[in-house]
């Protein structure tokens, strides 16, 4: 049993045999190499500020370019708005017009909402990205992927479901609050309306982005007041988009569906939701140097 050789029938000895390795490295080196590279790409890395600024700038430029290049399809967009409005009446949630008229009667409130709609959509989203970059670098890439996937799938909705906002409906009785109060900044009304696709209301990225911000803050912030503000932000945004007659309730539902898709994409790529990943980027340990031979034995 202790012999390392095997006697053959002819009495000769054969070299000891070994079992083939079960490791896929020896049988499928190409596949193993690809898997290793794929795992390496999926591991969160420390974000580089110059790359992130460039990536976000280029991504938003492409998003705006594609969104505004979609044919406006005014006739179909108005038909879709009438259909959405009738569905909401059937569901008993068609109160957007009442909210729009009630809030418009309070000048200081509606003017504040107009500026809220025009500015916080970008300011808060960029602020949350900067906060993640500085305080949660290990979760930054996964959270950013949620936002990018959400925005990307929204472009599909803009292309296939052109939708007029309530303020542009024929005979809808809605008030375009930017035109009435001459407030600045909205790309959807006034002097800047020709720079933006007026019939891309479904889904609402004001809701998609604000809910991403709110959930991110709620999941990762340590201060209770910050968590509360995180939940209030998308709630306030919903009130604003309806009060200013820029969206229907169901546009907000479309934004939430896009956000759900974004979280699923990030979960599939990184293997966990962003808030379940380590806060800091794991450091890569360098392999220990081989021991030096002692010439003196």
TrEMBL record:
<feature type="transmembrane region" description="Helical">
    <location>
        <begin position="228"/>
        <end position="246"/>
    </location>
</feature>
<feature type="transmembrane region" description="Helical">
    <location>
        <begin position="199"/>
        <end position="221"/>
    </location>
</feature>
<protein>
    <recommendedName>
        <fullName>Inositolphosphotransferase Aur1/Ipt1 domain-containing protein</fullName>
    </recommendedName>
</protein>
<keyword id="KW-1133">Transmembrane helix</keyword>
<dbReference type="InterPro" id="IPR026841">
    <property type="entry name" value="Aur1/Ipt1"/>
</dbReference>
<feature type="region of interest" description="Disordered">
    <location>
        <begin position="1"/>
        <end position="33"/>
    </location>
</feature>
<dbReference type="GO" id="GO:0016020">
    <property type="term" value="C:membrane"/>
</dbReference>
<keyword id="KW-0812">Transmembrane</keyword>
<feature type="compositionally biased region" description="Low complexity">
    <location>
        <begin position="13"/>
        <end position="29"/>
    </location>
</feature>
<dbReference type="Pfam" id="PF14378">
    <property type="entry name" value="PAP2_3"/>
</dbReference>
<feature type="transmembrane region" description="Helical">
    <location>
        <begin position="115"/>
        <end position="133"/>
    </location>
</feature>
<dbReference type="InterPro" id="IPR052185">
    <property type="entry name" value="IPC_Synthase-Related"/>
</dbReference>
<feature type="transmembrane region" description="Helical">
    <location>
        <begin position="49"/>
        <end position="66"/>
    </location>
</feature>
<feature type="transmembrane region" description="Helical">
    <location>
        <begin position="145"/>
        <end position="161"/>
    </location>
</feature>
<feature type="domain" description="Inositolphosphotransferase Aur1/Ipt1">
    <location>
        <begin position="83"/>
        <end position="263"/>
    </location>
</feature>
<keyword id="KW-0472">Membrane</keyword>
